[in-house]
Amino acid sequence: xxxxxxxxxxxxxxxxxxxxxxxxxxxxxxxxxxxxxxxxxxxxxxxxxxxxxxxxxxxxxxxxxxxxxxxxxxxxxxxxxxxxxxxxxxxxxxxxxxxxxxxxxxxxxxxxxxxxxxxxxxxxxxxxxxxxxxxxxxxxxxxxxxxxxxxxxxxxxxxxxxxxxxxxxxxxxxxxxxxxxxxxxxxxxxxxxxxxxxxxxxxxxxxxxxxxxxxxxxxxxxxxxxx
Length: 227
Fold this sequence. Notes:
This protein is mainly alpha-helical. Helices cover 78% and strands 0% of the residues. It has a single domain (2-226), classed as Growth Hormone, Chain: A. It is built from ten helices and no strands.
């Protein structure tokens, strides 16, 4: 069961790396009615929403479980690609980006926590844990590289087709996530209430700045313009 779960996580990471429109993501948006300024504005709003959703998603994940959170987020991820495929104009691309912000906040930390628990948690040797996480990240990168190669060879000027193929790959990733088993959470300390966390962010500017910087650095590892 443990190996099966890890391989499912690998397959999901690979499928979500298949962003067939990655080489022309900005051109795709411009072709479908938005300017560079509007793209920048959408990204700014997206980042703000993503930051705001971090704490609520952590609270939700603690209560419904990592597996259920992943299934919900992978479905919303798939839905965001449908929006992107059909998008035409500022409102559509803004809606797609807002949905993506919710997804990335939900997956932030939850996917790594799930994989850590699936491999045995603290009982997994550190070297084996690093190897599994490395393979997981590599699968996502391999998917992106393959998608870019296939775009250059076969898709080329057919921008809509690249978005449609991405819909298929993310739909398949969501279907695989349905088969993920539940994993027991490792709780080592009492979890603070959501209201208390929000109050801490509002009252302690240094902590808020630190939280924002960590959030932005995590998002920088996966450029939103390619997502």
